[in-house]
Amino acid sequence: MTWEERWHPLREEWVIVAAHRQDRPWSGGTVVHGEEALPDYVDDCYLCPGNTRVSGKVNPQYTQTFVFDNDHPSVSQNAPLDLPKPSGIYRNRPARGIARVVCYSPKHNLTLGELEPAEIENLLRVWQEQYLDLGSRPEIAHVLIFENKGEAVGVSNPHPHCQIYANNFVFKTIETEARVSRRHLAETGRVLFQDIIAAEKQDERRIIAENDSVIAFLPYFARYAYEVFVAPKQTHPSIATLSDAEVRDFADVLKKVLVKFDNLWQMPFPYVMPLHQAPTDGGDYGAFHFHIEFHPPLRKPNLLKYLAGPEIGGGNFLSDTSPQEKAAELRAQPAVHYKHRSAPEEEK
After folding, report:
1. What's the CA angle centered on 99, arms 96 and 105, to 5 degrees?
2. CA-CA-CA-CA torsion for 86, 92, 94, 99, nearest 10 degrees?
3. Of 97, 176, 326, 337, which one has the fewest beta carbons inside 10 Å?
């Protein structure tokens, strides 16, 4: 049995590791994940090519990615300015910003991990364009690109897509990362995320995939059982400044991680995937290191990682698993997606 606290340097918080709790008796709810074959095109899907969305707008017959302004945005450039004044010390202001949707592919039944490497490269370039376009606007302080995948995280439409929130404020996690990264550089002369990569490479057990310019690892301080970071080895404040070679390498490692996720339980693996990028409010973010984080909600095929007392009430995660053990499970997965393996390949 182990009781351990691990310091999360990007969030400045303790993560409690109690791996022996993984096999404790469980009587909570389950996540049903029966895999139903989906067609390439669904006539009532509002993301498929040529279909009419609830706004009345018709999707083009797109053949690669498709970007459009969200029909039901959480923020808007037209947010009402005349808001009721709240009582006492409370403050409010309009939620101004831009919300967009990015369809990965015209095919309804392909996940990000099932796209070809060239298709993932194309998506990465779309993300670069969107960050530059939205981030260049003076009213936008931060561009958050993220994907919610799977019913376990509340996604109702399986058509492969992500969302973009370009807001007039910086999200808290990014604000914290920027602050601690700036402080670490001032105190040590080193980039914080570079020190994290160096520690992971020194240990090696939690590295999931790697090539010349990109690395993926399950961090020492992981809060979720299968939390994985994917990052360029060189420091870039955002995805926008990755070179063509780095984009190719990033697509390669990203696909490998996603295939291992799906292969783990031979099912479409649910997750929340945010891109951690520097704010666009004009500040100094030379110490910020762009990366993608995966936060999978499942710790077993039918069991969610429930956020309860320590996480919601106390604000610190309690991990029921060992990062090294979970990394070993992912590392052991074949490189070929389970949907495309023959019997001999499956044994490799």
Report:
1. 170
2. -130
3. 176
Amino acid found at 97: G
Tell the burial category of 188 from Cβ atoms under 10 Å away from its Cβ (0-12, 13-18, 19+): exposed
Confidence of residue 27 (pLDDT cuts 50, 70, 90): very low
Supply the range of the domain harboring residue 102.
Answer: 4-24+38-346
Tally the domains of the chain: 1
Domain of residue 176, CATH code: 3.30.428.10
Active site amino acids: 161
Instruction: Give a yes or no: residue 291 inside a domain.
Output: yes
Does some domain include residue 32?
no
Please say if the pLDDT value at position 26 is more than 80. Answer: no
The whole model's pTM is what?
Answer: 0.89
Q: What's the rounded Cα separation, in Å, for the pair 19 and 2?
A: 7
For 304, counting Cβ atoms within 10 Å of its Cβ (0-12 exposed, 13-18 middle, 19+ buried), the class is middle
